[in-house]
């Protein structure tokens, strides 16, 4: 789950990631399945850490925060998606 803003998502994103900006997450919790595994990410990790905490408080148990988020992914794993 990508918790960045839509303009950031347009710059680069992970395939099959669901975009729900952190500012909208609380009101959109119903769009997510509490039984699925969710990996939250943002640009560097701050917003996704908050998102993971919010999900856990709301009964989501299989939640992880992608360490280093999209920046680390783009620089260390998949440079083809581009870093910003």
| Average pLDDT level | 95
The dominant shape is globular
Percent strand equals 5-15%
- Record field, number of beta strands: 2
CATH architecture grouping: 3-Layer(aba) Sandwich
Helix content: 25-40%
Element-level helix/strand string = HHEHEH
| Major sheet summary line | 2 strands, parallel
The strand line-up of the biggest sheet is 1-2
Distance between the termini: 19 Å
The CATH top-level class label: Alpha Beta
Give the number of helices: 4
Radius of gyration: 12 Å
Give a short synopsis of this structure.
This protein has four helices and two strands. By secondary structure, the chain is mainly α.
Descriptors:
mainly alpha, about 80 residues, single chain, Oxidized Rhodanese, domain 1, 2 strands, 4 helices, two-stranded parallel ribbon
Structural account:
- The protein is about 35% helix and about 5% strand.
- By secondary structure, the protein is mainly alpha-helical.
- The chain is globular and about 35 Å long.
- It has helices spanning about 5-10, 20-25, 45-55, 70-75, and strands at about 40, 65.
- The chain has one domain (about 5-80): Oxidized Rhodanese, domain 1.
- It has a two-stranded parallel ribbon with strand order 1-2.
- The chain is built from 4 helices and 2 strands, in the order H-H-E-H-E-H.
């Amino acid at each position: 789950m990508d918790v960045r803003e839509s303009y950031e998502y347009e710059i680069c994103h992970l395939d099959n990631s669901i975009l729900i900006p952190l500012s909208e997450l609380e009101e959109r919790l119903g769009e997510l399945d509490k039984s699925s595994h969710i990996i939250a990410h943002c640009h560097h990790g701050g917003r996704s850490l908050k998102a993971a905490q919010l999900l856990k408080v709301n009964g989501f148990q299989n939640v992880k925060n992608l360490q280093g988020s999209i920046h680390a992914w783009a620089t260390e794993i998949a440079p083809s998606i581009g870093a910003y």
